[in-house]
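Section 5.1 Outputs to date
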Amino acid sequence: MEKGKFIVFEGLDGSGKGTQLRLFAEELRRRGRRVYETAEPTASSTGGMIRDALGGFVQRDAYELSALFLADRIFHNVNPKNGIRKFIDEGIDVICDRYYYSSFAYQGIDADLGWVMQLNIGCREILRPDLCIFLDADIDSCDERISSSRLDREIYENKQAQARIRSRFFEVFDKLGDSENIKIVNAARDIPSVSADIIKIYDSIKEK
């Protein structure tokens, strides 16, 4: 049986990840692919602890939060009921909203970046994606989208933090180099244009 593809969507808060992930999944299903959509943090108890911290309800430092994300990510991969590995082995494409790249960029602005990267890349239970789509949009546009879509903001959802995080994402991509298949898409355009570019990228990797 052919294994499914593992594709991750990354970007700043407000970059349009949710919309583009949904459109991409719909296109794959139109093509007859079986698709499982997922996200991090997960719905596990550890994921709940992470969301409480991101929402500002519980204060945790960057190292503690990195460790929580690691535990949640391992669960996300190995869970026998709805884990990433299970679906990929069954020939189902897994599309994930955020993965370890976000840990590198978000927790990596306050914790030691090398340590955060080694925790994840050095863990054999954590799969490497076939493709990472990074939706790159300017800070002001992302901030406007956040303001228009929700009343409360998470701890990283401010312009100063987002500027640091965007810089960290690109630092991480440089460090990873050719070891990861990362494609950067200009997300500061209309939704159909961004979606079309994502499909082109997907088709190009399928042909290899």
